[in-house]
Hints:
Elements: H1 5-8, H2 11-15, H3 20-25, E1 34-35, H4 48-66, H5 76-90, E2 99-102, H6 104-116, E3 122-127, H7 131-139, E4 143-150, E5 153-154, H8 156-168, E6 175-178, H9 192-204, E7 208-212, H10 228-232, E8 237-242, E9 254-257, H11 260-271, H12 279-290, H13 293-319, E10 327-328, E11 336-340, H14 347-356, E12 359-360, E13 362-363, E14 376-380, H15 386-415
Parallel strand pairs: 1-12, 3-4, 6-7, 7-8
Antiparallel strand pairs: 2-9, 4-5, 8-9, 10-11, 11-14, 13-14
Helix pairs in contact: 4-12, 5-12, 6-7, 6-11, 13-15
Amino acid sequence: MVTDLQEIFSTNAKNMKKSVIRELLKLTRRPEVISFAGGLPDPNTFPVEEVAEITADVLRRDGASALQYSPTEGDPKLKDELIAHHEQEDGIKLSPENVLITVASQQGLDLTAKIFIDRGDPVIVGLPTYIGGLGAFKSYGADMIGVALDGDGMRMDLLERELEKLARRHEKPKFIYVVPDFQNPAGITMSEARRIELIELARRYDVMIIEDSPYKELRFEGDAVRSIFALDGDGQVIGLHTFSKILFPGMRLGWIIADEAVIQKLVIAKQSTDLCTPAFTQAIVAEFASRGLLAKAIENVKRVYREKREIMLSALDEYMPDLPGLSWTRPQGGLFLWVRLPEHVDADELFYEAIEQNVAFVVGSAFHCDGGGRSSMRLNFSYPTNEDIVEGVKRLAKVIENHERSRRRAGDVIATP
Length: 417
């Protein structure tokens, strides 16, 4: 072993940080802990029997090709299914040259960062935003600029202010990263008006948009909003997608849609990463979709998660203490909601108090590139059982109540002469 590994690690490697969520999840593995921390799908929604049958059929019929290397660009049959899916869902017309199959959407984030970001490049993200995006961009040395959200998504007045600041310094961000549908972590959806305004700003300042869209199909209520990609139609947007949330994550399959020139560069980047996405899993999912089972599976997931969301919202309404500044979002779809705590409550500290009471969440600071968000938390409702959602909210409410009671007692002691 060399005497000093740190001396020979690359700058990129030195910039890599452990995932806060993955580290926190280690503390939640005890069976008595009810975890709202992960973003895991409900395994009861997995179409196991259908996949077992299809897997056997694929092996019998196409085993030689399914167990072989495949094109870096992806299985042509799966790409055709995805092209049809986008046209039906959002009216987007794509060619195979506009689609790249990836090892889930996290690889899409990494490849996108790889082809665009040089060390020190500015990148605009939401406050808060998906931690996987922050990790990917940070690992390539991006200088992330956070823009706050409100109930309609990223605030365009603040975005324009940041773009103008950069323009005055003769700089521009490599891209604007958004999760517009049932955002992870906040659960909010960017309105169509905001999406159009975002496209207009991106065109005016000549900036790409990365639209991360793992949850768009999981709408429980309200009218669907067209994707930023569909509203643009001019190559300004790169769309990242995954089967992990709409079907199951074990196949590790996702895809990118973009202008052909972008896809070509992503293909080259992918070739030096893993050569190709597994042919076997692509063949299984392509066959699954071709039999009309994907739409059926999505409807089932939506039904299950709609019920779980309602249970969590009802439990929060019933059991959370009435404190100034304590509130939560009411998402119309997806897997998460966002809790805002009173400003004096530090969720990073509260997390360990919650673990002692056998309930877990993800701290809001993990989703902020600027170190903020300490008085907030993300709750997941897709994975816990209905019963655990209610019991977990009860425990969490008690943790917050006890925290407030202890704070008041400490204040009383300090105030006593």
